Amino acid sequence: MRIALINSGLGLLTAAAELRRQSPGVELILAMDPDGMPWGARTPDDIAQRSLACAWAAAAHDPDALVFACNTGSVHALDALRSQFEPRIPVIGTVPAIKPAAAAGQPIAIWATAATTGSAYQHALIAQFAASVAVTEVPCPGLADAINAGDEEATAAAVAAAAARTPRHVSAVVMGCTEYELAAYAIAAALPGVSLHGSAAAVAAQALRRAVTAGAGAGAGAGANGTAGPALRVLLSGRPGDLPPAALRYREGRFLVLRPDPPPRPDPAPRPDPAGSGLPGAGSSAVRA
């Protein structure tokens, strides 16, 4: 099975790591856009164009499913990707995990980029899934940029600032940007006792379900051409490359590169435990199937 993920930066790492945890043999294509990041500051049309360019580069490798591992991109370009690739390649989008966070009926906070906070899109999700609970929208300026840069000091400062804007009575925080899930440990430490809700686990599960269905329909088990490829392939604005050095600052990134390709001969030394490389602290999540 081969699954492609797209995001302008490192926000795809958590969903990719979840895919590898849930299906260790899955081949992954990570299509990032360092030439155009961050997408959040761009116009919707520009986001759509750059997302499509990444998706076409990934589609050239015959994935069984395409994951749009970006909240902002899913808002502005998910329909464009689906019109180009479905039904041949299922496209799975991402939305903030507001519904599961609000399920307990307690006050929640939504951490999101400054552009998304207060947007009509986010307000519509709140009205649909959290109308009966108190919701605080918390803008997190600079947090996604710091995470993408692998800057621990700047990440800690942005998390602390967002935590200070988060009411003490909230029971749950929605990580409304996929990059934020890479900082789940820092967020959990800043908000003890508060549950965190991200999208990676649900997106991965849905992608695997749809990839299996698509593969069965096409009669191919590893991409449309049925041939096996590298366990991990990285595309940088369409060019073959390696994971950015900042990715290796996160255990999701290290987990992905620790999986060798091809598999080595049996080694008596202890191997890394994939089960310990997921996203602790994250709760149930939402997905645009």
Account of the protein in words:
The chain contains 10 helices and 11 strands. About 40% of the residues lie in helices and about 15% in strands. The protein folds into 2 domains: about 160 residues, Rossmann fold (3-Layer(aba) Sandwich), CATH 3.40.50.1860; about 100 residues, Rossmann fold, CATH 3.40.50. α6 packs antiparallel against α7. The C terminus is likely disordered. The chain is α/β, with parallel strands linked by helices and about 290 residues long. A 6-stranded mixed sheet has the order 4-3-1-2-9-10, sandwiched between helices. Strands 6-5-7-8-11 form a 5-stranded parallel sheet.
Q: TL;DR of this structure?
A:
The protein is an alpha/beta fold. 38% of the residues lie in helices and 15% in strands. It has two domains: 163 residues, Rossmann fold; 101 residues, Rossmann fold, CATH 3.40.50.1860.
Looking at the structure, the CATH topology of the largest domain is: Rossmann fold
Cα gyration radius (Å):
18 Å
Number of β-strand runs: 11
Number of helices: 10
Number of domains: 2
How would you describe the oligomerization state of the chains in this entry?
Answer: single chain
